[in-house]
């Protein structure tokens, strides 16, 4: 049997006054989804547990572990190492990897990343100028890599195992830049023992270095927001301590099928590679239309070659971070037209039975421009999947559906094997 999973990353949201109280997903015209709802089954799933310690960040990377059938609370190593894996950077298992972001803090308040546009070549120069003054010489800077839609390019710092600054970095908690936008910097500072204090020192020390940099002075002269601080976050290693002493079982061995993942987010690719799944990172065109079309073409081709094809687009998430309700609804429509539709047709054209799963994976709220980790809808259709009462693919309908999956890492087992044993 053939399987396909289409992830409309961040499509779930809250009701919007501009859309007459409907969510962007509810407002979108989705004929393919509507047809799948009539023949399939709607449910709701929570991919990220509320009680994980340390808490898991909302968003695609941690939730992807759950979708693939792994407990994210036991397997998530950090955003930065997953990005490094997805970008296939030369990183050793015991190296520490950090995400680097350049902040603009005005009147003590952290500004949204979308308000601070720094070209990759300028960001690379600013970051390189910080290494020696902050005592980070000997670390490797990987700057300017293409990242998910709607966000700045990924900048990563790799700290070797024998670096003088090496410490218990796992104790430090530094929030993602999008989660501290609008907050006073003093209240957003990293915490967590000596490691948290060291991150605080780097944030503070970076201010003086950046203020004197020629590129930053030029930004101010041109009326652009100044880059004021360096922010390190999402740290981890490629080879964290195995959960309960057990290594992560490869996905093909765990489920007995071959799989292939296409994604626009390096960290999502990193999760799949950790699971032993073949992946391809697809860089989005500035147009969501063209980007979704590229993904759709590649995914449709892959359906004939693999047992399970998983495709992730973050176009709806990008619209949440940089556009309005109508734009997000349109991004969802384009994702259906150029991604879900060709995948569905390719799957239906294959001989033999098939199944299709559609989910937003996580919520990205327009109101806060932040990702959220609550339950989201999912739709499954195909072989031996039936429903008594068809329901629309919306957040509200999913809340009242009879299929509720409390532990997201159990959904894959149901999708692949439910009703076909």
Please describe what this structure looks like.
- The chain is α/β, with parallel strands linked by helices and 421 residues long.
- It is built from 17 helices and 16 strands.
- Strand 9 (259-263), helix 12 and strand 10 (278-281) form a beta-alpha-beta unit.
- The model is unreliable at 147-152 (pLDDT under 50).
- Total number of domains: 2
- Mean pLDDT across the residues is 89
Q: Tell me the Rg in angstroms.
A: 21 Å
CATH architecture of the largest domain: 3-Layer(aba) Sandwich
Note the total helix count: 17
Please outline the major beta sheet.
8 strands, mixed
General shape: globular
CATH superfamily of the largest domain: Alkaline Phosphatase, subunit A
The tally of strands reads 16
* Proportion in β-strands: 15-25%
Multimerization status: single chain
**What distance separates the N and C termini?**
12 Å
How does the helix and strand content classify structurally? alpha/beta
Annotated CATH topology of the largest domain: Alkaline Phosphatase, subunit A
Short description:
With 421 residues, the protein is α/β, with parallel strands linked by helices. It has 17 helices and 16 strands. The chain has helices at 24-27, 31-39, 60-67, 72-75, 79-86, 120-131, 177-180, 185-188, 193-211, 214-221, 251-255, 266-274, 288-303, 315-322, 325-349, 395-399, 411-417, and strands at 2-8, 41-45, 96-103, 105-106, 109-110, 140-145, 154-159, 229-237, 259-263, 278-281, 308-313, 354-359, 363-365, 370-372, 376-382, 403-405.
